[in-house]
């Protein structure tokens, strides 16, 4: 007998409403039954005859004189067809929200030392490698190191077998802002790459996404995703998980802020790092420790060059 694919939320709702889930048609990936499918099913059950209103047998209702019949609302304004990419993005966002028990934690990170380190080498790196070194490769490297220590954040949940599947490699998704919409190229085997290697791959994949030359295999198989809304000046966000991944990191902008060091208030460079995760499988304490490990690495960035 073939197992019915359904989300935990859908199964719980079906049980609560007394619905036989085998009668419900799923609209999720591979026909998976979602919460929305259960709600839609309740509005018209297949075995329930539709009630037909006999207008001749009903008492007439007195209406206001010269009342205007109800018509569908007509939206005024310029109309633009939604692109297939936008529809795909919309479907992915709803799929994530319907299937994940969301929570987010944030930590403030002092990146003053990282700021100075990058500034001291950025010109030499550009001359020797042709790569313009940004802060994102450092952040990516710190996250990769932390993922190796907290592998649950790079895992996936297999609903067919009720198992957590831990990846053998870390395939890191980097969200890219394109004219067509949000795209998430994936850096394969990222745990084997240096900071310079990561910088090259981030640049190459982002360019391919924007020029629409990216390959399908470069957009799939991700273990964990980073979204850098700090690049447009945003300080803080609650990023949406790239389902079926279990977590995502959101990077805020680096800003000037007074900080306390050795009991003294001094000028510093700080940024917020947010991690959203699926609370069904990942505890808040785990995400908290994961964030602290990333904070440790970014506040002592010289160690990232040897990890």
From TrEMBL:
Keyword Transferase attributed: yes
EC number(s) on file: 2.3.1.12
Enzyme class: transferase
Domain Peripheral subunit-binding (PSBD) stretches: 5-42
Keywords of the record: Acyltransferase, Lipoyl, Plasmid, Pyruvate, Transferase
Entry superkingdom: Bacteria
Record Pfam families: 2-oxoacid_dh (PF00198), E3_binding (PF02817)
GO terms for MF: dihydrolipoyllysine-residue acetyltransferase activity; lipoic acid binding
Necessary cofactors: (R)-lipoate
GO cellular component: cytoplasm
InterPro entries: 2-oxoacid_DH_actylTfrase (IPR001078), 2-oxoacid_DH_E2_comp (IPR050743), CAT-like_dom_sf (IPR023213), E3-bd_dom_sf (IPR036625), PSBD (IPR004167)
Family as reported in the entry's similarity comment: Belongs to the 2-oxoacid dehydrogenase family.
NCBIfam families: PRK11857.1 (NF008815)
Entry protein name: Pyruvate dehydrogenase E2 component (Dihydrolipoamide acetyltransferase)
Species of provenance: Mycoplasmopsis cynos
Lineage start: Bacteria, Bacillati, Mycoplasmatota, Mycoplasmoidales, Metamycoplasmataceae
């Amino acid at each position: 007998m073939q197992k019915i694919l359904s989300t935990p939320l859908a199964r719980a709702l079906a049980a609560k409403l007394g619905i036989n889930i085998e009668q419900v048609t799923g609209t999720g990936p591979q026909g998976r039954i979602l919460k929305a499918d259960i709600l839609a099913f309740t509005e018209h059950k297949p075995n329930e005859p539709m009630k037909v209103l006999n207008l001749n047998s009903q008492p007439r209702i007195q209406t206001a004189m010269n009342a205007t019949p109800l018509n569908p609302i007509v939206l005024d304004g310029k109309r633009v067809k939604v692109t297939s990419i936008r529809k795909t993005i919309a479907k992915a966002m709803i799929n994530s929200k319907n299937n994940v028990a969301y929570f987010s934690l944030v930590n403030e990170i002092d990146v003053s030392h990282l700021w100075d380190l990058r500034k001291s080498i950025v010109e030499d790196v550009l001359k020797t490698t042709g790569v313009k070194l940004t802060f994102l490769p450092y952040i990516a490297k710190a996250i990769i190191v932390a993922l190796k220590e907290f592998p649950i954040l790079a895992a996936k949940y297999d609903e067919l077998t009720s198992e957590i599947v831990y990846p053998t490699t870390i395939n890191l998704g980097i969200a890219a802002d394109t004219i067509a919409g949000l795209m998430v190229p994936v850096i394969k085997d990222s745990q084997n790459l240096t900071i310079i290697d990561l910088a090259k791959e981030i640049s190459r994949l982002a360019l391919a996404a924007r020029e629409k030359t990216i390959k399908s295999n470069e957009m799939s198989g991700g273990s964990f995703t980073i979204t850098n809304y700090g690049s447009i000046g945003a300080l803080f966000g609650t990023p949406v998980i790239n389902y079926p991944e279990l977590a995502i990191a959101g990077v805020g902008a680096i800003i000037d802020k007074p900080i306390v060091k050795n009991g003294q208030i001094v000028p510093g460079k700080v940024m917020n790092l947010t991690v959203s995760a699926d609370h069904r499988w990942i505890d808040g304490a785990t995400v908290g420790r994961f964030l602290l490990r990333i904070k440790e690495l970014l506040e002592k960035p010289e160690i990232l060059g040897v990890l």
